[in-house]
Design brief:
The protein has 15 helices and 13 strands. The protein is an alpha/beta fold and 387 residues long. It has a six-stranded parallel sheet, sandwiched between helices. Strands 9-10-11 form a three-stranded antiparallel sheet, covered by helices on one side.
Length: 387
C-alpha cells in the first residue's frame, strides 16, 4: 500500500552536505534537517568550534544544541587527499552543498562552487561569508559583533550612555534565515528547470537588508535614529515604564485612537489628548521627555498588575520586560525535547505551527563529535571517484 504523501516529511529524500561551523550555516542546515532532509555535518577532527562556546547545557554548548539537532556528524581532515575524496563523493550524492569556511578556503580545497555545479548541474551550492565575494572587505574575517558594528546596527542600539550589542547573534541568524529562504526557493525552481544554482549570503548583506528602515530615514530624510534604549525612535509613547516596585511594563501606542484611550482609560488624564505638545505622533516624539515623565509618574504609583489591567481594558498593546527567569516560566511557551550526547534537553520549540502542529518530523538528536564517521566513511568510501 502506498504511503500517504502527507505522512512523509517535506524534505524527505533530500541530501544536504554541510562543511560548517559556528552559527549561520548550522542554522540553515538545521532548518533543512527539521523538515526531513538528511544533513551530513562535516566537522574538522577537533570539531565545530561552537561545541566549545560554553558547557552550560549539562556539558553541551547552548548554541550547538540549538542548531545541530537531527544531523549526522562526520569528522574529516580536509587537508588530507583521502578526506577530500570522500567529501567529493558525498557532494556527488547531495542535493545541497553548504559551506561557511574562511574566505577562499573552499576553493583552495578544490571545491569551488562553480566547478561543483559544472559537474553536478542539479546541485545547489551555498556559500556563507562575512562580507560577500566582492568588494574591498571580501577577505576579512567577520564575526557577529563585528558585523553589528560595521552594518550600523550598533549605532542605533543602546542608550545615551553608550552603544550596546544586540544580545543574540543577530547577524549570524539573519544570514542563516536568509540562506534558508533562498535554498527553499532554489529547490522550488529546480523542480521546474532541473537546474541547481549558487547562493551567496553574507552576514553583512543579510543584516544590511534588515537595516533598510534606518538607512532610508537617513538617506532621504537626513535623520539617524536616536539611541533610546527601550523607547522607539520615531513613535511615542512607546517605551518601558516601571511600576512602584521597579518592574517595567513596555507600552506601544500606534494611532490617535489608542492615544486618546491611553489618556482617558489608563492614565486618567483625558485632557492630555488635547494638549498641543502631544497633538499627534510627531509632536509627541518632539516632546517625548515631558510625555514620558507624565506616564512614569502615574505608573510609578501603581502595581504592575494594576497597570496591565488598565492597559488590557483599554486595548493598549503592552509587554512585560521579562528576565530569563520570566521567559523560562512564560505561559505562552511551547517546548520540544531533544536528545543530546549527555542526556535529554527541553528547549523552546520552533516558531512555526503547520496545520496546528509543530513541523514534522520534529527535532532529531544532537550528534556527538564524529558519531557517524564510521558509517559515512563506509557509505562513501567506495565509489567511482566521480566528484
Amino acid at each position: 500500500m502506498t504511503e500517504p504523501a502527507a505522512a512523509r516529511p517535506d524534505l524527505d529524500g533530500l541530501v544536504v552536505v554541510s562543511v560548517e561551523q559556528a552559527v549561520a550555516a548550522p542554522l540553515l542546515s538545521s532548518r533543512l534537517a527539521e523538515a526531513g532532509a538528511r544533513v551530513i555535518k562535516v566537522e574538522r577532527p577537533e570539531g565545530d568550534f561552537a561545541r566549545g562556546y560554553d558547557r552550560l547545557v549539562h556539558g553541551e554548548s547552548a548554541y550547538f544544541v540549538w542548531l545541530n539537532r537531527g544531523k549526522e556528524s562526520v569528522c574529516l581532515d580536509l587537508r588530507q587527499p583521502e578526506s577530500r575524496a570522500v567529501l567529493g563523493r558525498m557532494i556527488a550524492a547531495a542535493d545541497v552543498f553548504i559551506q561557511n569556511l574562511a574566505p577562499g578556503a573552499i576553493e583552495r580545497l578544490g571545491f569551488a562552487p562553480a566547478d561543483l555545479r559544472s559537474r553536478h548541474p542539479r546541485l545547489i551550492t551555498v556559500s556563507i561569508s562575512g562580507y560577500g565575494d566582492d568588494g574591498p572587505y571580501r577577505k576579512l574575517k567577520a564575526y557577529d559583533l563585528l558585523v553589528q558594528a560595521e552594518s550600523g546596527l550598533s549605532s542605533i542600539t543602546g542608550t545615551g550612555e553608550g552603544l550596546a550589542r544586540v544580545g543574540i547573534s543577530v547577524c549570524d541568524i539573519a544570514a542563516g534565515a536568509t540562506a534558508h529562504q533562498a535554498v527553499l526557493q532554489a529547490l522550488f525552481a529546480r523542480e521546474r528547470t532541473g537546474q541547481g544554482r549558487h547562493i551567496a549570503v553574507s552576514l553583512f548583506h543579510a543584516l544590511a537588508d534588515w537595516m533598510n528602515v534606518p538607512y532610508l530615514q537617513y538617506a532621504y530624510g537626513g535623520q539617524s535614529p536616536a539611541l533610546c534604549g527601550l523607547s522607539h525612535p520615531t513613535i511615542a509613547p512607546y517605551g518601558a515604564f516601571p511600576d512602584r516596585e521597579g518592574r517595567e511594563v513596555l507600552i506601544s501606542v500606534q494611532n490617535e485612537r489608542e492615544w486618546r484611550q491611553l489618556c482617558a482609560e489608563v492614565l486618567g488624564r483625558p485632557e492630555l489628548a488635547k494638549d498641543q505638545r502631544f497633538a499627534d505622533n510627531s509632536a509627541r516624539v518632539a516632546h517625548r521627555a515631558a510625555l514620558d515623565a507624565i506616564i512614569a509618574a502615574i505608573f510609578g504609583e501603581l502595581e504592575r498588575d494594576a497597570i496591565i489591567a488598565r492597559l488590557e481594558a483599554a486595548r493598549i498593546a503592552y509587554g512585560r520586560v521579562s528576565s530569563m527567569a520570566d521567559l523560562a516560566a512564560h505561559p505562552q511557551n511551547r517546548f520540544v525535547e531533544v536528545e543530546t550526547p549527555t542526556g535529554p534537553v527541553r528547549m523552546l520549540a520552533p516558531g512555526a505551527l503547520v496545520d496546528g502542529c509543530p513541523p514534522a518530523p520534529g527535532p532529531g538528536p544532537v550528534p556527538a563529535l564524529g558519531a557517524h564517521t564510521g558509517a559515512i566513511l563506509a557509505e562513501f568510501d567506495a565509489g567511482d571517484g566521480n566528484e
